[in-house]
Specification:
With 193 residues, the chain is mostly beta strands. The protein has one helix and eleven strands, in the order H-E-E-E-E-E-E-E-E-E-E-E. About 7% of the residues have low confidence.
Length: 193
């Protein structure tokens, strides 16, 4: 897959969420990769449901891997009950497709996320997510897949935040050794509509 095809796949998949009343667009980059995701209230899809849908993709033109990862997920979210802080968390499922220079596969992943903000310092926040695709839910060449990220953001405006963080995506193919397909510091922005 060429670099242009990878960028187009990320843009087209994330753009499909626009008619579904997407509320947050998240875009981050590092020296070799770009990640884009739309999140919106699950109540726009299923009435009276606390949660969110996610549509997104990750593209890397790293010379060793050449990665395209596309995903669509549903997550139930809510207050995690922390004292002296606003902690929201979510757990859910997502379907994903991964294509690298060496392997192609997909399947279902289980995961979770959090967003932590302290009283009096609400503009500063800490976020993280983790998605794991076990062998039993995998199709194709990839037996299991693990993706996680940790970020710290600052809300420049109430509906626009910039952030720094770290992301790692590890793949374990059925015919080889596990390897890291994306790894490193990320810089991004989140826009809420």
């Amino acid at each position: 897959m060429t670099k242009l095809h990878g960028w187009l796949a990320v843009v087209l998949l994330t753009a499909t969420a626009l008619p579904a009343h997407a509320e947050t667009f998240d875009l981050n980059i590092n020296d070799a990769a770009v990640f884009g995701q739309f999140n919106g209230p699950l109540s726009h899809v299923f009435n009276n449901t606390d949660g969110e849908y996610q549509l997104g993709g990750l593209y890397s033109d790293d010379k060793n891997t050449r990665l395209t990862n596309l995903h669509a997920g549903l997550m139930l979210t809510g207050d995690a009950g922390a004292q002296e802080a606003r902690l929201t968390a979510g757990i859910g499922l997502r379907g994903q497709y991964t294509d690298t220079k060496y392997d192609t596969g997909g399947g279902g992943a289980i995961g979770g996320q959090f967003d932590l903000r302290f009283a009096g310092f609400e503009r500063l926040g800490f976020q993280g997510y983790l998605w794991y695709q076990p062998k039993v839910l995998s199709l194709g060449d990839i037996e299991d897949q693990l993706e996680f990220a940790l970020t710290a953001d600052y809300q420049v405006l109430r509906n626009a935040a910039v952030y720094l963080g770290y992301r790692k995506l590890r793949l374990d193919p059925d015919n080889g050794h596990a390897y890291t397909a994306d790894d490193g510091a990320i810089f991004g922005l989140r826009l809420t509509f």
